[in-house]
Amino acid sequence: MTRPEPLIVVSNRGPLGFRRDADGELEAARGAGGLVTALRPLVDRHDVTWVASAMGDVDREVAAAGRRTERSRSGSPFTLRLVAHDPDVYRLFYSVVANPVLWFVQHGLWDLMREPGADFEQPWHGGYVEANRALAAAAIEELDRVPDAAVFVHDYHLYLVPAFVRAERPEARIAHFTHIPWVGPEAWSVLPPTVARGVHEGLLACDSVGFHTERWRAAFVESSEALLGRGEEATLISHANPIAVDVAEFDALASTDGVRSRRAELAIERPEILVLRVDRVDPSKNAVRGFEAFGLLLERSPALRGRIGLLALLDPSREEIPEYVDYRLAVERAAAAVNERFGRPGWEPVSLVVRDDFLSSIAAYVDYDVLLVNPVKDGLNLVAKEAPLVNARGGVLVLSREAGAFEELAPWVVPVDPLDVDGQAAALERAVALQPEERRAWLDGIRRHVRTHDLDAWATGELLELDRRSPRPAGATMRP
Ligand code: F6P
User: Fold this and answer.
1) How many angstroms separate the Cα of 49 from the Cα of each of 33, 70, 103, 276, 461?
2) Is residue 318 lining ligand 1, measured as CB closer than 6 Å?
3) What pLDDT does residue 114 have?
4) Does the pTM exceed 0.85?
5) What is the CA(159)–ligand 1 centre distance, in A?
6) How far is the C-alpha of 332 from the C-alpha of 350, rounded, in Å?
7) Ligand 1 atom, smallest distance to 155 CA
8) 343 lines ligand 1 (CB under 6 A)
9) What are 373-396's pLDDT values in tens digits?
């Protein structure tokens, strides 16, 4: 058990979003996304003040009213401080820089025909820098209220927050965790040097910097050396600590009535062999090549036609960004192409459902035979851990070598190279043909690993890494 510690968590999307119900009353809804779920143990075990961006109009009202006390799903109190950005600043920050640029660069999706051109400095300074500055200012105010708190910053939206905080409060204890891949100097070189260097300087202002894998950590050391000559510092402050699943939460969810009723619905429609994918609609997730590979499997294995089906449960994501809108259309076209070619009355090879329905995803986790996780690149990929944890059919995981989770789960998966459609078709064929003993042994291997490396261990590990590099001051406040 860790000592409870005062913490200021800073992330772009917060743990709660606000709206008004039919009577105009304020209503809080859980913020979407894996990051927020992953940070819950921190809220339950520590004195957390959470600083995040206001997303909609009601969030902005909440931001204007100042900090407020909220409760986590397990009932733990925490302080929430929302920051309202100027809408133009936020658009440049989120929809021009953080997602279509940083996310794309760090997932190997960059296309040299694209921007950034000469005008990239404007969204960088007017959007990304400003939004980071505003969140850092709020974190500093909270730090003045709780001076012995550690500041724990998250993800690619907020690379500059640590440097802003450090400049104002040199003694602060600051950690950052990057939830997406890190890439080497060549990949960063597509950005203007001020931007690439700014990103690295931001992280090097931390006491501790975490990544999901050793591979991403090593890339950070390499790019810090190439861009700033600070590889040694990067080595000293960085570590790898793959994020994990809240095992108790998943066990409980899998046996709820909501999941049971969705399993019953799925049972009526399911093919004999169910291949599943669960993702956000995101170019990095590689759904289009997954559908093409499934089509190739049907072409090569006529005996599977009519017996096998691919269920794709995709959450809509970042729909204000044109690249995401285009990718969703490409996903829909690719699914339709397989159905047009191979479908017949009574059998639709690909079922594509684009909807945010977490309980249906868990129902499908329980009942898949093959799980396809083929991202072009992925910081970790939590689906690869969550789904095997609750699967009841000896399901086989087909996993991209480019997902961070591959480093941990490789002994128990059918590996795939995400750009190799032919190889993915062969991998699906192999997964379908795997013998029951082997299926069971592999699933058990993943399950054992996920159960013993759980989310509490991840959160504790992050704070220990910070303590190791920047010990807590003697006499720091502690809850009993
Ligand atoms: O959970 C996956 C993830 O991509 C995180 O890396 C990121 O912080 C979060 O989603 C942000 O998602 P959104 O764009 O929906 O705020």
Assistant:
1) 19, 10, 27, 38, 20
2) yes
3) 63
4) yes
5) 14
6) 10
7) 8
8) no
9) 999 999 999 999 999 999 999 999
